[in-house]
Design brief:
- By secondary structure, the protein is mainly alpha-helical.
- It has twelve helices and five strands.
- The chain starts with 5 loop residues before the first strand and ends with a helix.
- The relative contact order is 0.15.
Length: 317
């Protein structure tokens, strides 16, 4: 924050922050970040296309995977434009309305992704606990209702944030901590009372990320108990192997957030460039890694990709 020479929120300007101390090298630093974004968009688009067009990939697990890919694409679309503006065009200024809109979509897609990961954990539990009724339990109608509930929750939990921010006073020019807008960052820059905003933000996190992570851990506890009750060691290994991909993306989603939280509380001011790098990675890594994990671990997706390439080769011939 520069000073508390306040203005109404709608007239405030926010300045994006790149990598402190590396401003002269932003073009070079941004190359790997931009490559990650491009690969994320291509990878998740391919996953969506395969699941949409391949009849073999219409099982509940892959339908939930398509929801995950869609949320990853939304997250890329929410963060990528301001990164390009900052790193390649040097444009730091962002008006309040655009900043609040970006904040809403970033948090909403993050909550959607968290909800989909919970739904996928429930899917794995049903598949292992009651495989005979798996198809009748997770019907297309049930999955549509789950997807709608996840989307509605994300919207309802994030809608109060931008609305309540409009009642706050901000400096005419405020410096953000990242190259995108986050709720905690904007609340910290306000010059007026932010108790209600902080409380709403806390409740939003508790009812989304915290609740989902606890329920995911509960699901895996039940899965482990079910697997340990299987007599055959081979069947145990086979059952656990179906959870490996999901467990990997759960760790990829939550561990960077945990690392960023620890860094902000311990050494944020000592290593500002590292804090910014971690803040970028915790949004960029999950969309980048999720398609890779499922392409490596899922035989059906690999076969779907192989069929597409073979069909293209035949068409060319």
């Amino acid at each position: 924050m520069l000073s508390c020479n306040t203005s109404a929120s709608g007239h405030s300007t926010f300045l994006l922050t790149g990598f402190p101390g590396l401003e002269a090298s932003h073009h070079w630093v941004s190359i790997p970040i931009n490559l990650v974004c491009v690969v994320s968009i291509l990878g998740n688009s391919v996953i969506l296309f395969l699941i949409r067009t391949d009849p073999v990939l219409q099982e509940p697990m892959y339908v939930f995977l398509s929801m995950l890919a869609a949320s990853d694409l939304g997250l890329c679309a929410s963060t990528f434009p301001t990164m390009v503006r900052l790193f390649w065009l040097g444009a730091r200024e962002l008006p309040f309305d655009l900043c609040a809109a970006q904040m809403f979509f970033i948090h909403a897609f993050t909550y959607v992704e968290s909800g989909v990961l919970l739904a996928m954990a429930f899917d794995r539990f049903i598949a292992i606990r009651d495989p005979l009724h798996y198809a009748t339990t997770l019907t297309h109608s049930a999955m549509a209702k789950v997807g709608t509930a996840i989307l509605v929750r994300a919207v309802l939990l994030n809608l109060p944030g931008p609305i309540l921010l409009r009642r706050l006073l901000f400096p005419q020019i405020s410096i953000l901590s990242h190259c995108y807008c986050l709720h905690c960052d904007l609340v910290g820059l306000a010059c007026s009372d932010t108790q209600i905003n902080s409380l709403v933000g806390l409740v939003s996190i508790l009812l989304s990320l915290c609740l989902d992570s606890c329920l995911i851990m509960l699901s895996y506890t039940l899965i482990l108990r079910t697997v340990l009750g299987i007599a055959s060691p081979g069947e145990r290994l086979k059952a656990l192997n179906t959870c490996v991909s999901h467990l990997c993306i759960v760790l990829i989603f939550y561990l960077p957030k945990l690392g960023l939280s620890v860094l902000h509380r311990v050494e944020k001011h000592s290593y500002p460039a590292l804090a910014v790098l971690m803040a970028n990675l915790h949004f960029l890594v999950p969309p980048f890694m999720n398609p890779i994990v499922y392409c490596v671990k899922s035989r059906q997706i690999r076969q779907g990709l192989l069929k597409r390439f073979q069909r293209k080769r035949v068409d060319v011939s």
